[in-house]
Amino acid sequence: MPLSGDMRDAVLQPPDEPTPAAVLVAVTDRAEPGVILTQRTETLRRHAGQVAFPGGRIDPGEDAVTAALREAEEEIALPRQQVHLVGPVDTYVTVTGFQVTPVIGVVPPDLPLIPAAAEVADWFEAPLAFLLDPANQLEREVDWQGSRRHYYEILWEGRRIWGATAAMIVNLSHRLRDD
To answer: For residue 25, is pLDDT > 60?
Structure first.
């Protein structure tokens, strides 16, 4: 069963009106597929320095697919016409008040991606098999606001993928094993 959001800990309350958002899970079309992830800049107001899928808010008039493709194009210059859509998967509600719809798409390998300096410090490709392997999906806990909070973390080549991004990867892993 997929994780529905950060609210699985008793201390966290679901937001009254979560903001719709979407991310692109861009899987590279190669013999050993990878997943494109971004490293956010340290200067951002929210989620500074964190690893994330390209994505963001769904603008008025957009659906999750349109928003995910637009955000990937804005953040890393990933041309939307290069994405072969697989489709949306299980939504995830974050403690920061977003209801995120991951959209899976397959992209050609070795696209000349360019990070948008205001938002993205860097991008990288992590092996899909590594990300989906439950042995690499470490469940962690931390004291937060006086209570224990649980989250997932995936460590790959000095990169820390955690929180909502890691949880969405765990969901995808569960979905692929269950189907």
So the answer is: yes
Question: Considering the chain, what is the average pLDDT of its residues?
Answer: 88
Q: Are strands 98-107 and 19-28 parallel, antiparallel or unpaired?
A: parallel
Do residues 107 and 78 touch, judged by C-beta distance below 8 A? yes
Q: Which residue has the tokens 């994505």?
A: 55
R_g (Cα) of the chain, nearest Å: 15
Greatest extent of the chain over all pairs of C-alpha atoms, in Å: 47
Answer with the residue of higher pLDDT: 3 or 104: 104
- Listed in sequence order, the residues at least 6 apart from 7 whose beta carbon sits closer than 8 Å to its beta carbon are 13, 14, 93, 95
- The closest alpha carbon to 123, from 110, 132, 136, belongs to 110
The token pair at 128 is 């899909």
Task: Report the Cα 141 to chain-centroid distance in Å.
Answer: 20
User: Quick check: 23 and 83 in contact, CB under 8 A?
Assistant: no
- 73 Cβ contact list (under 8 Å, min separation 6): 79, 80
| 80: exposed, middle or buried (Cβ count in 10 Å: 0-12, 13-18, 19+) | middle
**Helix ranges restricted to H, 16-146:** 64-76, 128-132
